[in-house]
Design goal:
Length: 290
């Protein structure tokens, strides 16, 4: 347990700049970073922070966005807020996942920093003590799905968008810690078929297999349901809840801590394979045609 807690005490960067604005007639505080990759607000009525990814066009997770997300999670937990809702400022996309351009013809030094930051950001998110729920307001494939299922609770906005780990459709394999978390979330058999096929699930399908916990008509309703989930712990002793959560999540975090350098080296070798780069190139070309 001590090792898990220590792993979450990462180096904190400078505080985000303070601003103010109004959302739905509720007074909140908005912290916007200089790079504007995140929009972070505190609802004064509930004490719940809303972290919105804000990197158009699809919130692809590049090095800079991951660094900001990690820092914001640490800072928000330190502020003693009641909980966090993770969502997107984009209208139809939660997150398209890992930025393919970080993997395509990579600079090895940057790729190393990128993957280590991804690992650290995930351990921070997954090991967060305070309640965190995802208001998934659009498409959420691959790494976007990872972010969502790393939260405690997930509310998916209804529509034509999908969620899932579709790495095999891109010609790559999901990392072991992606797979283990996916199996923990929806069960082995559902996960096995979905991972092999790279299946993406529409909202009702995701609800039926337990990939998400609730559906919502729109983003506002999804956020409200996430806040209701977080507020459900108001009468639960915080210390007891936090210890229980860390016990539930310790195994996956410990695995990544112990294997992070091996996994990093494997990823660097895998990504540089000629056939993998060819698959990434083909995928990038399809995106250019859309």
């Amino acid at each position: 347990m001590k090792r898990v807690i220590q792993s979450k005490l990462l180096i904190v960067s400078k505080m985000l700049a303070l601003g103010r604005f109004f959302i739905k007639q509720r007074f909140i505080r908005n912290y916007a970073s200089g790079k504007k990759l995140l929009e972070i607000a505190e609802d004064q009525n509930t004490g719940i922070h809303i972290i919105s990814m804000a990197r158009p066009p699809v919130n692809s997770l590049n090095l800079e966005l991951l660094e900001e997300l990690k820092t914001s999670l640490i800072e928000t937990q330190k502020s003693n807020c009641k909980g966090i809702v993770l969502t997107s400022s984009l209208s139809t996309v939660f997150s398209a996942g890992l930025d393919i351009m970080e993997l395509y013809k990579p600079d090895i030094e940057r790729l190393t920093a990128y993957w280590r930051t991804l690992q650290d950001t995930w351990m921070t998110l997954y090991g967060l003590e305070i309640p965190i729920a995802a208001a998934i307001n659009g498409a959420s494939p691959a790494g976007g799905c990872l972010l969502a299922i790393s939260c405690e609770y997930r509310v998916f906005v209804e529509g034509k968008h999908t969620i899932g780990l579709n790495e095999t459709q891109l010609g790559i394999a999901a990392p072991q810690w992606f797979i283990d978390l996916f199996v923990n979330t929806i069960g082995y058999r559902h996960a096995e078929l979905a991972l092999l096929r790279g299946t993406l699930f529409y909202p009702n399908e995701a609800l039926n297999i337990g990939l998400v916990d609730e559906l919502a008509n729109d983003k506002a309703e999804a956020i409200k349901k996430c806040q209701k989930y977080i507020s459900s712990y108001d009468r639960i002793l915080k210390q007891a809840r936090n210890i229980t959560k860390l016990k539930l999540r310790e195994k996956l975090i410990s695995w990544l801590q112990e294997h992070r350098e091996i996994e990093l080296n494997n990823i660097k070798q895998f990504i540089q394979l000629a056939n993998i780069q060819k698959s990434l190139h083909a995928y990038i070309e399809t995106l250019k045609q859309k």
